[in-house]
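so my prof wants the structure for this chain in the tokens format not the other one, which i didnt know existed until like an hour ago. anyway here's the sequence
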Amino acid sequence: MNILIVDDEMQLTEALAAILKQHNYSVDCAYNGEDGFDFASSGIYDLIILDVMMPKMDGFTMLKLLRARKIDVPVLMLSAKSEISEKIEGLN
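here's what i got, hopefully its the right format
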């Protein structure tokens, strides 16, 4: 299984990637939304773990652009945001 982690918190991203790799997952990491979008656009991932608040492109925008390109890979969104309107935006 190929997993892409897109998060600007480098230490968190690397720790999560190391854990996943220990469980025999193939993992790539990107540290901003633009790079994450470029990686994800390849269509090779089975799962994307995506932070909401990132430089260059936020996670909501990145996901909207991926869906517009008909890339329907499952996405697990990470966020420190807690407002209901923000949760609804992520689900939409």
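also thought this was worth mentioning. The longest strand covers residues 2-6.
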